From TrEMBL:
This is Peptide/nickel transport system ATP-binding protein. Pfam families: ABC_tran, oligo_HPY. It comes from the Bacteria. The keyword Isomerase does not apply. It is found in: Cell membrane. One of its GO terms (cellular component) is plasma membrane. Residues 6-254 form the ABC transporter domain. It comes from Aliicoccus persicus. It is a peripheral membrane protein.
Length: 352
């Protein structure tokens, strides 16, 4: 078995809200091997991006605890200069919006050459030639011409291809893709996903893929970590997640997407939202308020993530007797009550 490329141990990332730190990423551990795609899924606010940003050292004001071991080095101990050496080199990132990743004032070729120059020692001529080859590699037609263009002259899909060309320029060992296709047209999404998968296989890179889209997970992932309110609640090979999901949150997520059998049928909608950090009860099963029909005795106090089948990890005992149910008026009233209670004890708004 290959060694882990990335080993995140007990990562806790906290933000200051009204003078107190609250964990947005709470004791998260995960691993990625070379050539493996780990998807991190969950609704908005579950802590996916905060996890990725912590790994990449992009949170300047957060308190970071735990370890992020990348090829044997703990990145949480890295200073800005050390990070600059590996970001765009051994670790690359693809964000949701290509426009924010590209410099609007620089031609495409110059942006690729810049990345190559920071991390390599080749001549300007060689780098310029390689920049065009990279554009061809990511499927851009008339690469010579596109290389001379500015980002605003390209379509969204082309811009994301350019971002991918920049990401792979230095043959990264680890690729972090945060909602890489969310901003694109549906028809383009599949092409971009195929491209990422193909390049990743070519390079043998490990990938941390962040998405709220289970269709993307099914297409891309080898293993899946399901995140809720800062914690991983289920971790398993992709097949297991779709064929044998266990945690109530995973099951709720899966039933809220249209499947072929469900087409024309009724979709289950998970009621409620991920609570704000300062309103979260951290001593209970964090998903329990959203499944009020499950008796409190089914949940653990301070539930732990346990390996319940080989390679299949689940948090809390509530999965054992969980059943899905159409939310009725009584459940909705209960959810609203909880919201009101939380608002009554709530603190200040988030500080950036
Ligand atoms: N800089 C920050 N300061 C304060 N709170 C923050 C900060 N960044 C994120 N948070 C909070 O941390 C929690 C997790 O946010 P995060 O963006 O990681 O979620 P996410 O799962 O990536 O959601 P999305 O898909 O919407 O990006 C949220 O409650 C969010 O409000």
């Amino acid at each position: 078995m290959a060694e882990n490329l990335l080993e995140v141990n007990n990562l806790t990332t906290s933000f200051k809200i009204g003078g107190t730190y609250f964990a947005a990423v709470d004791d998260v551990s995960l691993t990625i091997k070379p050539n493996e795609v780990l998807a991190l899924v969950g609704e908005s606010g579950s802590g996916k991006s905060a996890t990725a940003f912590s790994i990449m050292g992009l949170h300047t004001k957060a308190r970071i605890e735990g370890e992020v071991n990348f090829l044997g080095k703990d990145l949480t101990k890295f200073g800005p200069n050390q990070f600059n050496k590996i970001r765009g080199g051994e670790i690359a990132m693809i964000f949701q919006d290509p426009m924010t990743a590209l410099n609007p004032l620089m031609r495409i070729k110059a942006q690729i050459v810049e990345t190559l120059t920071i991390h390599g020692k080749k001549s300007k001529n060689e780098n310029e030639k390689y920049a065009v080859e990279l554009l061809e590699r990511v499927g851009i037609a008339r690469a010579e011409q596109v290389a001379e263009a500015y980002p605003h002259e390209l379509s969204g899909g082309m811009r994301q291809r350019v971002v991918i060309a920049i990401a792979i320029a230095n043959r990264p060992k680890l690729l972090i893709a945060d909602e890489p296709t969310t901003a694109l047209d549906v028809t383009i999404q599949a092409q971009i996903l195929d491209l990422i998968r193909e390049l990743q296989e070519d390079l043998g890179s490990g990938v941390l893929l962040i998405t709220h889209d289970l269709g993307v997970v099914a297409e891309m992932a080898d293993r899946v970590a399901v995140m809720y309110a800062g914690e991983i609640v289920e971790l398993a090979p992709v097949r297991e997640i779709f064929k044998n999901p266990k945690h109530p949150y995973t099951r709720s997520l899966l039933t809220s997407i249209p499947s072929e059998e469900q087409m024309g049928g009724k979709l289950h909608v998970i009621q409620g939202v991920v609570p704000a950090l300062h309103k979260l009860d951290r001593t209970i099963c964090r998903f329990s308020p959203r499944i009020p029909w499950i008796d409190a005795s089914e949940h653990e106090e301070n539930p732990e993530l346990r390996e319940v089948e080989e390679g299949h990890w689940v948090r809390c005992t509530c999965y054992k007797n969980f059943y899905l149910k159409e939310t009725n008026a009584e459940d909705l009233a209960e959810l609203e009550n909880q919201e009101l209670e939380r608002d009554a004890v709530g603190g200040n708004e988030d500080e950036q």
